[in-house]
Amino acid sequence: MKRLVAFCLLATTIVAACTSTTTTPGPSASASGNAATGQHPKIGLVTDVGGLNDKSFNALADKGRKDAAAQLVVDTSVTESKQQADYVPNLTKYAQDKYDLVIGVGFLMQNAVWKVAKQFPNVKFAIIDGAPQDDAGKTDNLPNVANLFFKEQEAGYIVGVIAATMALNKVGAATHNTVCSMGGLPIPPVDRYIAGYQDAVTKTSPTTKILNGYSQDFVDQQKGKEVGIKHIAAGCDILFQVAGGSGIGYINAAKDAKVYAIGVDADQAAVAPGTVITSALKKVDVAVFQTIRSVRLGTFKAGDISFNAANDGVGFGALDKIVPADAKKAADQALADIKSGKITPKDTLTVK
To answer: What is the CATH number for 88?
Structure first.
């Protein structure tokens, strides 16, 4: 009798296993992503061309997705875009598969999100660093799209205070009183970072020289390194990168020359310990997580949503031991003054 019961239990288990719902990954889903099952809200994330290994913008967005998958009752998937032509088909595939939320990562996706969101009005979308933009380049806010913006100039200002303080006082390798920055492309989110940085340097140390340049790329590290080498040759001791994967090359140029670098978006201290003195933080992971959470709770709102110092959407990362106490104190004060409204960092470049 015991053998019969055991056999029946085994048979029941086998049948259940054979008829359970199988997970189905989204289009070109990353192996690291959780597949959508149809049992919970489905979230699709489409990266910019920088990809998941940029140690910055896209990686942070994916962290937000993973955090949501771990902490919320949602199923998620991620698709990497290899070129800008991939944006529309990648976004469309998630919409066609009836995902509940499709997130586009980056300013360069504004038109692609507009096209796909117009075609699928019953699907919710979000775009980081932008808003839907029609074919004529005009912003066209849609009732199913959340526009996730950041005040990058605030984070740029804080790290600019650190750079200027070190340059002014000639701390460590910062002996030439010259600081630099490099963007990937001259687009608004990039230039806002650099504008805040320049504003802080000008106000903190008016005698400090500022240089700026662009790699014209968010992926190619060699292009970023070449700009870094030129800046260092011109006397730059502190290099602030705002160029995604290309910016890693800029940091490596600083590492090779034994000068300093400042990371962007994520805390990039681990990219080059002893070289990266701090990072301008843009909490893309928090924005992604909160947007997914709003869909899960039924509180999703379309339109502009701002992440800034006041709501802990931007800040600065860990400080290297070379950063002196007065620079840290100045950075902490700058953050407090931005939160209170005493300081409003510029969002337009003074040095192009």
So the answer is: 3.40.50.2300
